[in-house]
Amino acid sequence: xxxxxxxxxxxxxxxxxxxxxxxxxxxxxxxxxxxxxxxxxxxxxxxxxxxxxxxxxxxxxxxxxxxxxxxxxxxxxxxxxxxxxxxxxxxxxxxxxxxxxxxxxxxxxxxxxxxxxxxxxxxxxxxxxxxxxxxxxxxxxxxxxxxxxxxxxxxxxxxxxxxxxxxxxxxxxxxxxxxxxxxxxxxxxxxxxxxxxxxxxxxxxxxxxxxxxxxxxxxxxxxxxxxxxxxxxxxxxxxxxxxxxxxxxxxxxxxxxxxxxxxxxxxxxxxxxxxxxx
Length: 278
Known about the structure:
Number of helices: 12
Order of helices and strands: HHHHHHHHHHHH
Structural class: mainly alpha
Strand content: under 5%
Largest sheet: none
């Protein structure tokens, strides 16, 4: 098990798909940093004019919360990574099972380990690589924001934070924002891993590699749009996993979503472990 898992992890983390996803994520972070710097220069000049006009006014330092990339609901870079996550999370390793079946690698490796061990290793490696794709850009954006804005607990009514009392784990956000960030990163890692693993399940119903990557994303988009059209946007899959946009989304809905994604990705592999893969 250990050797098979090690091989699959190396394949996933060193793949071209991982490089593409990482470059895309870092490009979004670079764009976010550029926009933030431009907006900061403009707002600083405006504040300087106001301070010169009203010498008695004091302008306090802004906090990190409205500026950290995933907390900005009004800019494209604020939600682009979440919207593309079903695709980017799967690029590193979700298509590997399809390729392994096509080139006969499955038959070779399954002479040395059982099909169950091979598929479990494949699922774990895909999950981990998808989670890495989900959280690394967010953490890179956080590292940038920490160099520019104070990291203190949000102040209610100050206007220094975007996420309101309706988001999931709002009390934790308002009192222990560091713990809230770690929790959100854990949820994003889990969501990214499960979304990536859906591609493994799709392998068994298609003869086209592109479908492995696109079908999960398209299905989730359709579900999201239908729920929004029905006035139930708070239950949408993209809304639930987004740290700043799951306003009025019940925790049980998030738990159900993660459970359904886990089942949808794992059950086909469990069934395949009992049959021939090639």
